[in-house]
Amino acid sequence: MTPERWRRVAELFDEAVRVDPAARDAWLRASSGGDETLFQEVRRLLAQDERAERDGFLAPPESAADTATWVRRPAPAQPDPAPAAAPASSGGRRRGFTPYQAIQDEPGANPSLGSRDLARRRLRGLTTTCIVITVLILAWKYAVVRDPDPLQAVPYVMLIVALGTLDVVLYGMRPFSPAAFEAMELGMIGTVAVVYSFAQYQTMLDFSLRGDATRAQLVFNHRVLVSTVLILSYGIYAPSSWRRAASVVVSIALLPFVTLLALQVLHPEAMGWMSRLGRERGSTPLAHFGFDAMLLLILAAWSSHGAYTITRLRRQAREARRLGQYRLVRRLGAGGMGEVHLAEHQFLKRPCALKLIRPDFAAEGKALERFEREVRITAELSHPNTVEIYDYGRTEDGEYFYVMEYLPGLSLEDLVKRHGPLPPGRAVYLLRQVCLALAEAHAAGLVHRDIKPSNIFASRRGGADDVAKLLDFGLVRAVAPERSPELSEEGRILGTPMFMSPEQATGGREVDARSDIYSLGAVAYYLLTGAPPFAEGGTIRILIAVARDPVAPPSTRRPGVPDDLERIVLKCLAKEPDDRFPDVRDLERALAACACAGDWDADRAAHWWSVQEPEAKA
Ligand SMILES: Nc1ncnc2c1ncn2[C@@H]1O[C@H](COP(=O)(O)OP(=O)(O)OP(=O)(O)O)[C@@H](O)[C@H]1O
User: Fold this and answer.
1) Which of 256, 537, 563, 609 has the smallest number of Cβ neighbours within 10 A?
2) Number of structural domains, the chain?
3) What is the pLDDT of residues 224-243, one digit of tens each?
4) Keywords of this protein's UniProt record, alphabetized (predicted)?
């Protein structure tokens, strides 16, 4: 799509969200001026927008600076959370629109270390247990009790076939995402529950109609026992948070009673034996069956706690394990591609940061390619302001990892979030160092393409503080790549919209080193004002604004930004690459010439860290 056409689509989208949905199509068709493909394209985007909103895909509340790590949140009813550092005006925006968003599971909810195989094994365990129970029930019915009605076997046989098929699928080599495992697990439990309840309903009704209350009651007691086994098996085999485990096992516990209630309501004449039984024993049916229900609910609580404990212990065990020569000490954080751990080399004992690619990500060829490129290219660069790579490897479980220098300190995103916008002199001090790191990459013909505050660290290195370190070369490309590279084949947006250059946002032009200069200008803007130049709305809105809207001068967002620095930032943020600094070294020189450039130095940095962040400094 040409930039002009892209802009037209974006403009129409922008306007269409304001039009009454009932009249939207007619309005859109008229505004498309008879261009059917334009009309269809904008309709498609609107539908995605609405779907994303309905499904609850929102930007993370705490992260103004990093839209690459959007998460799925379960409560779309809440007001749209304004990013911590975003301007107050963001309150009225629509929910996040994420047509091309890299959506990841919420960190923590997603078992990420070596967990694919574990989840597979445990789900297989649960399936096999259900098959064994069902086969035993069948065998008992027809071999021991000699149940005469062969039709009653049908649901059980179908269940065995379905569970067996799932088992075969799980034995296969195909990789599944955590969401797929979750769906398979819930589907399996749901099917088992439906079949058992159906069988309970049929058999109890059959015996009740024949007036055989003793056997009807026996069927109920057996169902309670089967629920007991299922509840315990779930607790042992299904890796879960306690909330999810509780919702599943409580449902299993209540199912025999819900079925009983259904029988009572639908066939009161056949189920008269229940009240008779109560009367004979001097109690009510509720008292009679309530005790069983209470025991099952206690078991369900116990099993939920068990599921949670097993999952927690396994996670701790995994985190304490060794990866080759490295011992994982603690988790530092998680990004779009995987987790980063503080680790220690077995012999050198030096601390390092170990980045582990998420197992479900490793299943995607493109992601692995990105990971390998990140390692290779970063390792080739040797500037002191670029993070140093120590090692690269693959675990026995097939997980990829690389090891880099550990950076005590804070990312620029965290720095601004915790302490607010930086004084201009300090921003210049950090930005100049990033310019030098970028100069080396650009000279090697590489464009970083993902410059953002979370990818730059203010760190303590070699006894000095506020040493800027540039990380995450995962999106780096040689200058003058193919056009429109920003959307991957899987439809993910590559890069971070709030810090993307207009040419990256529209994908309409070749991206060169001046694209990084734009992103660095956006980082400067963020450091000085506490918010990126464009932060309102979802992804498409931001991309539209980046491509089209003029940038509000930083001093209008936060008074006190010096004129000379403001001019530099606005020049970096020019829509046309030709209007920006031609080279990152020119930018560095311009920053060095700012009046505030001498306001910050190593001594002031050391003092600041000792007072404000003594722990991070340590
Ligand atoms: N070398 C390092 N030293 C110390 N902490 C690090 C290091 N590298 C990353 N981290 C921390 O680990 C966390 C995850 O980093 P990662 O690079 O995966 O995330 P990201 O850059 O936010 O995400 P993405 O890769 O999607 O852009 C971040 O909070 C970051 O601060």
Assistant:
1) 563
2) 3
3) 888 898 888 888 776 667 78
4) ATP-binding, Kinase, Membrane, Nucleotide-binding, Transferase, Transmembrane, Transmembrane helix
